[in-house]
């Protein structure tokens, strides 16, 4: 019954918080509207997101977010330096294939987004069986090192977060 | 309307504005300077994140120093950016994969499955990549950059 009304409790909760931050006030008015939004949007989108993600360690999401934020700043500086100072002839762009151990769609989505946001890599496609991800590197003299880095730094952490 | 800011706020706001502007400029410069579509994709997805981040931090500092309140809209803008910019990058990357990429130059997944974008059905429907050849047909050769 509760599942019928709230197919994604976490999504509903974050919609309430987002809406309240958006109107920037905590009046009864905005709270009522926030709850309406939080009830209607999960209903409208449930066909596209049928299963609940299983999150094992919600606390670790916070640590992961901080790690990614740190890496985003580093990525910005790295890419800026490459843009400004690297000669075209020295640039070694490469496609790499990162085999995946994580299987949950939410975890793979999070990994793909992380790859795009962090140092010199953009995720571009998924293998048809979902067991590998195609990544383009801006400058990768050693593609295998990039692959191992992605697996050790991000995938292992996501594996702990999502069951 | 004329609020005098303390010196520290003036300095901090200016610092973050300049920092943001520099990264925004570098991101745009990268669009011109990098050699081909895929490498160009890296400049705006990364350098501009910090560019916009700098401007947003400056904006938060300014509202805090002037009005004494913490504005949350900047945090939301950050959230929306982090959610949407990988999707934009993915779309541009996919267009490149379909129109310009030499498919034989791509690494293949170890399991032998094809890349989902090159199969009509998309991912995880259990249909093998069979209708498409791995080399582009004549006339569709990948363009090398100028």
What does the model show?
The complex is a heterodimer of chains A (163) and B (146). Chain A is mainly α and 163 residues long. Helix content of chain A is 60%, strand content 11%. Chain A contains six helices and three strands. Chain A has helices at 2-5, 9-23, 28-45, 58-85, 105-117, 143-161, and strands spanning 94-99, 121-126, 132-137. In chain A, strands 1-3-2 form a three-stranded antiparallel sheet. In chain A, a hairpin with a 5-residue loop joins strand 2 and strand 3 (132-137). In chain A, helix 4 packs antiparallel against helix 6 and helix 5 crosses helix 6 (143-161). Chain B has a domain at 1-99. Chain B has helices at residues 7-33, 37-67, 73-99. The longest helix of chain B has 31 residues, at 37-67. Chain B contains three helices and no strands. By secondary structure, chain B is mainly α. The termini of chain B are far apart. In chain B, helix 1 runs antiparallel to helix 2 and helix 2 packs antiparallel against helix 3 (73-99). The interface between A and B is large, with 41 and 55 residues.
